[in-house]
Design a protein that fits this description.
The chain is of the alpha/beta class and about 450 residues long. It contains 16 helices and 11 strands. The longest helix has 22 residues.
Length: about 450
């Protein structure tokens, strides 16, 4: 089952311009879709239909005029509760996150706040007191996290695009498990002002979309330097031209000894089919040493970096342990076992690993990996929440630590009908190149 492209941004723009439909008609239709899909776990807050209709701008020239989108509930939307997946933490912001302000100013219509793994801690989508979103392909399986609701909302035709966040892979894993595109930009590319921090030095706002062109469109409007965000960075490559051809682009793939699919032969077959599609586009594929990337991935939760999650929530944990999802509390509270010396030791180790990965980048322009090695059922994750979550992070956890950009794109289906994702990774500020390759692969996949 391919994702329906009816709400693709370019398509809606054309329909609006030609008078075939109107934003009001589209907004009404998606509320019907939301009611028919009937999964309250997707939304922590759904705006009343009348409010969404009232938000339609009378300026049709705006680039996202009448385009519906969803917001992960760790991003502030003025006047609407921000919960970060924890009711006891909830507050009502007086100002929207910078990225929300930009998109609304471009004409986009926010439909609601989506469910998430509590405090954006998890890749599974099962760590929320608001329920578990149904995976639209098989409700026995996880939807992916932490941006579970944002992924499902796009995949099921409730919105044209959505915002998630991605610290460890939360903008890519839900995309793979729901057969859509998940773009994780370079750190600092999109302002994190108004974002409840998970790991503030690594957090990124991510974009879920139906195709890579839409992801690139939203990125162009959402990104930009923000003086109010101390972690915002000005893009040094804003004028970089698109490649005229993908021929001879060097694609690195991990050697067989470094690839893990955790017993999932279908996922392995899909990955290698994706690599063949890259070759068919004229790209040159070659094996690289993935071990330093894998070693970096282990540092995100297996080193003092986990203490950064505690840094943002330490005061809340003191009085609200009983209000937190148990696995989330265990992970965040575990940050208190590290001292300042271990932090500096980890910084030194990361510098060594970064240097090792730089040697691999001498051999490639793009790194192509499975978004995840496999997918798990809800029952499997509930029985082993930490180990299986860790498995899902093998190909995602290292990206922000190494200051890379990444995009997950649909990559075919397993024999049981569940989708898989292929992730393309590039050095910082190469989002346009990633979207260009992703577009070519999506066209080839059909």
């Amino acid at each position: 089952m391919q994702v329906n492209q009816n709400l693709a941004i370019s398509r809606l723009r054309h329909l609006y311009q030609t008078g075939v439909t109107t934003p009001a008609q589209v907004i009404k239709s998606i509320y019907t879709k939301i009611a028919e899909y009937n999964d309250p776990a997707v939304w922590i807050y759904l705006a009343p239909l009348a409010d969404s209709l009232a938000r339609i701008s009378d300026l049709p020239h705006l680039p996202l005029w009448g385009i519906p989108f969803a917001i992960k509930d760790n991003l502030d939307w003025a006047g609407i509760l921000t919960t970060a997946g924890c009711p006891a933490f909830a507050y009502t912001p007086t100002r929207s996150a910078t990225v929300i302000e930009k998109l609304i100013a471009a004409g986009a219509i926010p439909i609601g706040k989506t469910n998430m793994d509590q405090f954006a801690t998890g890749l599974v989508g099962t760590r929320s007191p608001y329920g578990i979103c149904r995976n639209p392909y098989d409700d026995r399986y996880i939807p992916g996290g932490s941006s579970s609701g944002s992924g499902v909302a796009v995949a099921t035709g409730m919105v044209s695009f959505s915002l998630g966040t991605d610290t460890a892979g939360s903008g890519r894993v839900p995309a793979a498990f729901t057969n859509i595109v998940g773009l994780k930009p370079t750190r600092g590319c999109i302002s994190t002002k108004g974002l409840v921090p998970a790991m503030r030095t690594l957090d990124c706002v991510s974009i879920f979309a139906l195709n890579c062109e839409d992801a690139a469109t939203v990125l162009g409007l959402a990104s930009g330097y923000d003086l109010d965000d101390p972690f915002s960075i000005s893009n040094p490559l804003e004028s970089t031209p698109a490649l005229k051809s993908l021929h001879n682009l060097r694609i690195g793939i991990p050697s067989d000894q470094h690839l893990q699919f955790f017993g999932n032969q279908d996922a392995e077959n899909c990955y290698y089919a994706g690599v063949r599609r890259l070759s068919n586009l004229g790209c040159q594929t070659a094996e690289i040493n993935f071990q330093p990337f894998a070693n970096t991935a282990q540092m995100l939760y297996g080193s003092p970096w986990v203490a950064e999650r505690l840094a943002g929530l330490q005061d809340f944990l003191v009085d609200h342990a009983q209000d937190m999802e148990p696995t989330t509390y265990e992970i965040i509270k575990g940050g208190d076992r590290y001292d300042a010396v271990s932090v500096f030791q980890a910084i030194y180790r990361l510098a060594e690993l970064r240097r090792e990965t730089e040697q691999q980048w001498q051999q490639m322009d793009i790194l192509a990996v499975p978004t995840t090695g496999t997918i798990y059922s809800i029952a499997e994750v509930q029985a082993s929440p930490l180990e299986l979550n860790s498995n899902l992070g093998l190909y995602t956890n290292f990206v922000n630590l190494l200051d890379l950009a990444a995009i997950s794109i649909p990559n075919g289906f397993q024999s049981n009908g569940l989708p898989t994702g292929l992730t393309l990774i590039a050095p910082a500020w190469q989002e346009s190149l990633l979207c260009q390759i992703g577009t070519a692969l999506q066209h080839q996949l059909g």
